[in-house]
Amino acid sequence: MSGWLWWLGGALLLGIAEMISLDLIFLMLAGGALAGVVANALGLSVPLQIVVAAATAVVLLFALRPWLLRRLRARTTLVETNTAALVGRSAVVLAPTSAAGGRVKIGGEVWSARAASEGESFAPGTEVRVRRIDGATAVVDAEPDAPGG
Questions:
Q1: Which of these, 77, 67, 95, 86, lies nearest to 129 by C-alpha position?
Q2: Run of H or E including 112
Q3: pLDDT along the chain (149 residues), means of 10
Q4: Is 138 part of any domain?
Q5: Which end of the chain offers a freer environment for a tag, N or C, measured as fewer CB atoms within 10 Å?
Q6: How many independent structural domains does the chain possess?
Q7: For residue 90, which phi and psi values (nearest 5 degrees)?
Q8: Is 149 within a domain?
Q9: Residue 104 belongs to a domain with what CATH number?
Q10: Which helix (H) or strand (E) holds 8?
Q11: Distance CA 25, CA 21 (A)
Q12: Residue span of the structural domain in which 119 resides
């Protein structure tokens, strides 16, 4: 079997290992193995192929990997979905709402609601803020800039 096939097989196995680990180390080693393929194609001896593969892997590990990790982490932003996306949003009271219950409209959807604090109540038409979602109930309190709460 040709030497370049061994290098290519190694790169493939390292690529598979990278898909499992997802930390970019095996990907850099696979890049070194691909450099071994190139070294073999250039007719270098096996010891020189190993040196080229190892040097390329080290350069990729210490130069390219940190830069790639920074780029990947910078692009990772948490997008709130479902009920977590409702926390902090404004709502309009549809039915009188107190700690005992009520109804609000959040972004076009009608939710059962209750006031966050005992003794607090809101009249229909009042704008409130969703503090949390408790089951299927929005727990609300006064908008921070609303007069009189």
A1: 86
A2: strand 109-115
A3: 88 94 94 96 95 97 94 73 84 94 93 93 95 92 69
A4: yes
A5: N
A6: 2
A7: -80, 150
A8: no
A9: 2.40.50.140
A10: helix 3-21
A11: 8
A12: 82-142
